[in-house]
Amino acid sequence: MKEWSAIQLRDAFLKGEVKAVEIAQYFLKRIEEHNERLGAFLNVLGERAMAKAEQLDRKRAQKKALGKLAGVPIAIKDNMHIAGEITTCGSKILENYRAPFNATAVRLLEEEDGLLLGKTNLDEFAMGSSNENSAFFPAKNPWNTECVSGGSSGGSAAAVAARLSLLATGSDTGGSVRQPASYCGLVGYKPTYGRVSRYGLVAYGSSLDQIGPFATNVADAALMMEVIGKPCPYDATSLQLPAEIYKLTKDLDGVQIGVPYKFLDGLNPEMRANFDQSIEVMKELGANVIDIDLDVLRSSIAVYYILATAEASTNLARFDGVRFGLRSKEARSLEEVYEFSRREGFGREVKRRIMLGTYVLSAGFQDAYYKKAQKVRTLIINAFETAFAHCDAIVMPTTTGGAFQSGSISDPVEMYLQDIFTIPGNLAGLPCVSVPSGYDEQGMPLGLQIIGPQMCDVSVLQYSYAYEQANNIARLPEGL
Fold it and tell me: Could you give the angle at the alpha carbon of 84 between the alpha carbons of 82 and 85, nearest 5°?
């Protein structure tokens, strides 16, 4: 079953070639065999998955209607609520918090008969680029466990790459779906901001966060988008547009592809060679490639780490040790409850970002930092709009290289720079996908990023499907 796509597995179940109980047992066994080494799951929902599988087998035997994801194993990033289950956000402060309701994305996946296997590991409160900031243990890369799986959705990426699940959800605030997807040889998709409801997603940066799928191929990611890409009355930022049907095509005839060559100056030779090869594949498929100016994106890291941390400092103020989450046993006053609970519950990176965000919002500094960053964000949005007046999609690498060794980056600024190519898509609210594009000299996966205008989600996945079919390089990590 690990060799099958989600669509192939679903179709086999619908035809009666395999039972849902067999599917659940198979993937739960794989989790049992490999999760201790990989650290992909924080919480495995074995009983829940088996109960759902038994229900699906009964429905199929009774010839009742089954959903688009019938029998497909799915992992959920542990910053999204599943009613009655623990949501930790990878943090000690929430390690015993039990969610009272379903996230909209989770509800939609279950309504279409997906099998929820468990909650996956992440950088604490989705703040990180390597999954080394999890309060519990890091998620490791199935291609080489000495390397990071990426962040913040590293657990979801590791789970799908190792075929402990065939689909998974991630949240992408500055590249947290696309970067792990690139490092782990997967398709990772960040939809247009508002296309997928954020209701039930624990907020990090509210104007940047977006839920998206991990999959082994573009068609599976598109199927998941058909399920979760629906309007939601509980999310004020949800686009009130009907769900889309993703009809995928295998050519790029006449498609205008923009490449910001100047912005890509300094790309390491190995990554540049892989990128140039990907561009040649697109040309062979009929695309026209043009040079575009996006040099303003050099400011995106600075803008992001002002705006995202400002929003984080506000969003995380609710974790005070009073209403929910960890409460310090050492506190003797209300003030100490606030101070000690946060000191004991939050990790180093979360504290760093809260302090930075509080600083840029404080009196005397808001004009110098926060408001200026908002103005530059507008310039970035305008630069994308100007570029899209001349092209249908923009292509660049997903990352600056393959997955790096665990513990090799200790400087926070150097770690932040790992997201230089993914952050702009969040700042502008654009649909972006990472598709496997090859492997580096160490055999680690590399990814190509395709970016489209707002609300052109279908087109972005169509272009990525055409590229994927022509490139055809995806494979399983050895030993799994």
Answer: 60
Q: Is 152 annotated as catalytic?
A: yes
The CATH 3.90.1300.10 domain(s) of the chain lie at 6-254+396-471
pLDDT value of position 419? 96
Burial tier of 440 (Cβ tally within 10 Å: 0-12, 13-18, 19+)? middle
Q: In a 3-state reduction of DSSP, which class is residue 184?
A: helix
Choosing from 91, 134, 152, 406, the catalytic residue is 152
Tokens found for residue 155: 């657990």
Q: Give, for 110, the enclosing helix (H) or strand (E).
A: helix 104-111
278 is catalytic: no
| pTM score over 0.90 | yes
- 303, 278 in Cβ contact below 8 A? no
Please name the residues in contact with 159: beta carbons below 8 A apart, sequence gap of 6 or more. Answer: 31, 38, 40, 41, 75, 120, 165, 168, 214
197 in active site:
no
Query: Which two tokens mark 262?
Result: 């100047």
Catalytic residue among 129, 134, 153, 176: 176
Dump pLDDT digits (tens) for 396-418. Answer: 999 999 999 999 999 999 999 99
Catalytic residue among 19, 52, 77, 190: 77
pLDDT (mean) for 69-89: 98
Nearest to 272 by CA among 177, 390, 400: 400
Edge-first strand listing for the sheet containing 432-439: 41-44, 115-120, 73-77, 167-171, 211-215, 187-190, 432-439, 445-451, 393-397, 256-259, 288-291
Q: Please identify which residue in the block is written with the tokens 């959903």.
A: 67
pLDDT of 347 higher than 90: yes
Would you state the structure tokens that stand for residue 348, as one six-digit string?
């180093």
Q: Tokens 């960890």 sit at which residue?
A: 326
Query: CA dihedral in degrees (180, 182, 186, 190; nearest 10)?
Result: 70
Rounded to 5°, angle at Cα 345 from 342 and 346? 75
Calculate Rg over the CA atoms of the chain.
21
pLDDT greater than 90 at residue 202? yes
Q: How many other CB atoms are found less than 10 A from the CB of residue 459?
A: 18
Whole-angstrom distance, CA of residue 143 vs CA of residue 138: 15
Q: Which CATH architecture has domain 6-254+396-471?
A: Alpha-Beta Complex (3.90)
Query: What would the pLDDT profile of 253-284 be if each residue is shown by its tens digit?
Result: 999 999 999 999 989 999 999 999 999 999 99
